[in-house]
Fold each of these.
Amino acid sequence: MLHKKIHFCSQCGGDEVLMQVPSGDTHARPVCQDCGHIVYQNPTVIAGCIIEHEGKFLLGKRAIEPMLGKWSIPAGFMENGETVEQAAVREALEETGATVEVLGPYSIFSVPQMNQVYIIFRARFVGFEQPFGDETSEVSFVTKDEVPWNELTYPAIGQILTRYINEEDHGQFGLYMGCYEQGLVHPFGNANPCIN
Ligand SMILES: [Zn+2]
């Protein structure tokens, strides 16, 4: 789904919004035939983190649809006015109640079928600061042997946790970049000068 169908123009209320390549543009976009308003639709960024603590990491159980009752690392849509690191820290606090410190990027992957980009960090658990939010019914620190593999939200979460566990065993974390079909793990140290 490259573009959502636009039925009414947000500027003039006109009901004839057609896909066209605007003058000087390279992509077809919804264009209002009454006032010429062009709707730019771009991918959304989802930020999240693997929260590490004493050989375990923190998972949350979803209290809402989609994927009600399934487990995941905390992640959610980035908001305007924040950095992607701030978004990951905020989502961790909202979904698990935990304060975390971002350690470094861990996975950057695109889902062009959904017009989404996921940016997942490794983070250090600092402490529980508040109760977890309404989106979560339970949180739990799990070891690599306690991961509820059959109760994870999405296959991509299982893949990222599998790689994380494997790399933790070897004491060296890489940076994954890719998409659903293909990807590559880049060797990467723990220190990242871009974070702080
Ligand atoms: Zn219009």
Amino acid sequence: MGALPSAEAPLRVVVSGGSISGLGTGLALHRAGIDVHVFEQDGGAMHSAGAGLVVQPELAALFHPSDGAHLPTTSCRGRRTLGFDGEFGALQRMPQQFTSWAAVHATLMKLFPGERYHRGATVERSTRNEQGLQIDIGGVGAVAADLLVAADGAQSPLRRRLLPDLNPHYAGYVAWRGTVPERDMPQDITDTFADVFTFGDARSGGHALAYFIPGENLETTPGERQMNWVWYVGANAAERDDLLVTRDGIQRRASLRRGMARQSVITELKARAIADLHPMFARLITLTAEPFLQAIVDFAAPRTVFGRTVLIGDAASIVRPHTAGGAAKAARDAQALADALVAPRSMIDQRLDRFQREQLHYGQTLLEYGVQLGRRWARL
Ligand SMILES: Cc1cc2nc3c(=O)[nH]c(=O)nc-3n(C[C@H](O)[C@H](O)[C@H](O)COP(=O)(O)OP(=O)(O)OC[C@H]3O[C@@H](n4cnc5c(N)ncnc54)[C@H](O)[C@@H]3O)c2cc1C
């Protein structure tokens, strides 16, 4: 990497992707006095794909109490497993906090300056020149920068250009997800799941889990929250591809958002829930209007710093949801990158090198942990 501009000029950073790692990076860099702009290709309501997240310390650390914007969260007293034969397991004390993707995104949006967040703006390519980088952005034009951060997700277009031969490895099962507004839940279902992180063994292997998250308008009071569930189901590659065909007949690669799954697939999923899961889980899944789907994959890029382009979040590595670590990893990357970039200009290469080493180690460790948990829990 060549010399960066003089110490007087703030470092100019373009972030591609305005989800958790992109916005988190924007916020951490802005707090560090760096001239950062975030470009998000989606021009509409991004929350339609969102559901629940477990709050980990790395994610919570992005939100400073002094900023005045608090992350809406729900909580539980402990964990309990419901057997497929109708058994209610004992409660194990283990308090935990939960939130939703929409709540994290909305809170980050409150904290990050609006004039630095650009919607409907697709990062297309970057070219190196004597002044740094020229980044071409659809809907915006050419932007000059010193560093490009690829926070463009699991299917990262920038990573595909840098590492064209590497693809995520399919783990052999999918996660169905859904949410149900608490106001639409019969009282006995609410009582079963209230205050507990509930797991459910499935008769044919795999497991389900459920917890309350903030409501559609981020309310956290009982009665106004949503119930969030996930069910891991085995599917070979052909079955996965079939599940990933939308109701419009489009073959998707990795996930289906709400409203995309075919009605016949949803009907089959609900019938399978009745045969496979504890009746309370089956009723919860049956109540869900639009379940959505994610194919479970493992991926870790062998490097994440390419001169003046840095991969972070899911673009750098994808871990299984059992770790509850995807958003925490994104938040950790964001803060670590900000810490690396506040160094004197002459040390930035060195600091990015260290950032990369630590990021690769953290990502690989979490990835392996996810594979272990998958073997132990998903049993698929
Ligand atoms: C709408 C949405 C909802 C989600 N909901 C959940 C959830 O409920 N639970 C959960 O565990 N995880 C969820 N995720 C995934 C979760 O955010 C990630 O696993 C993790 O937080 C790391 O995020 P990321 O920012 O690295 O990647 P992602 O969250 O995948 O974000 C990548 C972003 O980059 C944008 N992008 C891609 N290419 C370009 C480009 N060329 N130019 C500009 N922008 C581009 C995408 O539109 C996307 O917003 C969701 C992701 C999205 C986008």
